[in-house]
Every structure is written in structure tokens, then in C-alpha cells.
Amino acid sequence: HPDIALSMSNLATTYSALGRHGDALKQEEEALTFRRRVFPADHPVIALSMSNLAAIYSELGRIGDALKLEEETLNLRRRVLPADHPDIALSMSNLAVIYSALGRNDDAMKLNEEVLTFLRRVLPANHPDIAMSMGNLAAIYSALGRHGDALKLGEEVLTFRRRVLPADHPHIALSMNKLAKTYCALGRHGDALKLLEEALEFRRRVLPADHPDIAASMHNLAVTCHAISDVSKAIGLILSAIAVLSRAGYATDHPKMLHLQAYLAQLRRQNIGSDKRRQTRRMAKPNERCPFCDSGKKYKKCCGKPGTGQ
Fold first, then answer.
1. CB contact set of 284 (below 8 Å; sequence gap of 6+)
2. Sign of the C-alpha dihedral, residues 18, 22, 23, 28?
3. What's the sign of the alpha-carbon dihedral 149, 155, 158, 161?
4. Angle at the Cα of 211 from the Cα atoms of 208 and 215, rounded to 5 degrees
5. Is the dihedral of CA 93, 98, 100, 105 positive or negative?
6. Which whole-number Å values give the CA distances from 298 to 110, 153, 189, 276, in the listed order?
């Protein structure tokens, strides 16, 4: 019975929301196999399962598999749905996210601009999908160095979502994180820090303690702390993010875990270097040659001057 596949797909969605992507993968693969067996090959519900499965592949770092499946989904939907059907825009948007993950930002931008135009034409002006599309486009603008355009869109998206979504909706935190990244790119680290701290507290309040989005917020906040030279705090945040993903069931060789471990190693190396510089500074003699540079001057007349920051 078709409802069996529906239940499997719903369960997969629940697993994904809880960060249990391995369990979600198993359920959605079974749902897709089931639907291909009982529905016509061009039935829209098959495209739905394919798109859901592609999203899970992306979460698991299997970007090549996600790309192949989402392109297939878009082709199927264009073939069987009306030209103005929102599911076509959804597939285009999903495909743009995958392009971005592969570094194909120009392709992603083109698709996202097309999606936003499409949605503004067919949906009510306050529909949440419009905000999602604007946010995706803002992220691509940032990746392409168009930070002014990204800032304008990002602020618009956050205002939009705060107006039309429930106060505890996860997409509000998502908008805060994306806007904070743009602030960082523009050198506005104070604004970014405030927004990221707010987003982390928001996610801790509304999500399970082992949800991957909490780890993502910790990582984003760590990057900003690193940018303002608060390396010790950044290290603590990355350790916490790794612990969250471990509790969520991420394997140690998952791309997200490997990225966090590599960043942690970088932060620790930098912190050791900072500790050594501080120790050397304490031991430096004012009237001896400066140990920090090649000026040949006495320490007190160059790097030992107040405000030099060595």
C-alpha cells in the first residue's frame, strides 16, 4: 500500500530533523525503492522521494550522489508538472545548493536568481519559501564576494522571517547565522559576534541537545572568536561542536567531523604560538635586542613599546 512508503518517508524526515542521517538514509532508500515498484515511472511522488534522498546524501557528504539524483529529480518534475509548479522551483533551489557545495557558484547564482523570480511570480508576497530563496541567493552573493548585495538580502530575510514565522522557528536562527557571516566578511565582527551568540542560545532553546545545527552555530561562533583573536574561546567551542556531532552519531571520518578536527588542530597550534610569545615577552629585557623582530633595536624601543600587542 502507498501509505507504507509515506510512513517510511515521514520517518526519514523525522530522523533528519534529529540529525540521525544514517537512519534517515535507510528509510528514504527503502521508500524510493517501494515507490518505484508500485507507482508509474513518471509519478511526482517518486520525484519527492528522490529529492528527499538527495538531501540526505548531501548531509552525509555524498555530494556527487546528491548532484546526480537532484538533476534527475529536476528533469522529471519539468517533464510531468505544470511549468509554474512550486516543486520545480524547489528542485532548482536544491540543485543550486549542491552546485555551491561543489564550488560552482556562478551556476548556483543563476539558478537561485531564476528561483526567486519564479517564486515571487507564483506565491503570495509573505510566503516563507520566498525568504528561503532570498537567503540562498544572499549566501551565493557572499561566496562570490558581493557582500553588499548579500548584506541587503540577508537583513531583509531576517526581518521577513521574524515577521511571518513563529518566534521559535529554526529558520530564524538560520537567517541570523547567515547574516553574521556577511557581517564578518565586511569586518563587522562585533555585530557578527552578538548575532551568533543569539543564534546559538536560540538553537539550544528550541532544538534537541545533540542536533547538528547547534554544532554549526558553535563552529560559526568559534570562527568569529578566532577572527578577533579569542583563540581559547574558539577552541572550547570547537570541542563542544565535535561532542555534539559525536552524540548525534556522526562518524569520525564524516567530512564535517574531519573539518572540525582540522580546524581544532590549527587553533591549538596558534594558541601554543601565542603562549610562547607571551612567555618570551615576560622574559624579554627592556635594554636587550628585541626578540620579536630584526630591527636590531632594544626591546623597549620597538616591540616592547606600550600598545604594540606582541
1. 290, 291, 292, 299, 304
2. positive
3. negative
4. 130
5. negative
6. 58, 52, 35, 20
- Backbone φ and ψ for 124, nearest 5 degrees, come out as -60, 155
Quick one: pLDDT band at residue 106, thresholds 50, 70, 90?
very high
**DSSP 3-state helix, strand, coil percentages of the chain (rounded to 5)?**
75, 0, 25
Read off the pLDDT of residues 14-31 as tens digits, 9 standing for 90 and up.
767 777 777 888 878 778
DSSP state of 290: P
| Ordered DSSP codes for 63-79 | HHHHHHHHHHHHHHHHH
Q: Smallest Cα–Cα separation from 182: which of 231, 211, 140, 233?
A: 140
Helix (H, G, I), strand (E, B) or coil at 94: helix
Nearest residue to 113 via CA among 87, 136, 90: 136
Q: Long-range contacts for 163-170 (Cβ within 8 Å, ≥24 apart)?
A: 163/126, 164/126, 164/128, 164/131, 165/128, 168/202, 168/205, 168/206, 170/203, 170/206, 170/207, 170/213
CA dihedral 123, 143, 95, 78 (to 10 degrees): 50
| Count of all residues that appear for the chain in the document | 310
Please name which of 6, 83, 105 lies closest in space to residue 52, comparing C-alpha atoms: 6
* CA-atom Rg of the chain in angstroms: 24
Q: How many CB atoms lie within 10 A of CB 129?
A: 17
**Three cell numbers written together for 221:** 561562533
Give this prediction's pTM.
0.65
- pLDDT for 96: 93
Count Cα neighbours of 176 within 13 Å in the Cβ-side half-sphere: 24
Report the mean per-residue pLDDT for the chain.
Answer: 85
157, amino acid identity: V
Q: Cα separation of 128 and 141, whole Å? A: 20
Adjacent-strand bridge partners of 253: none
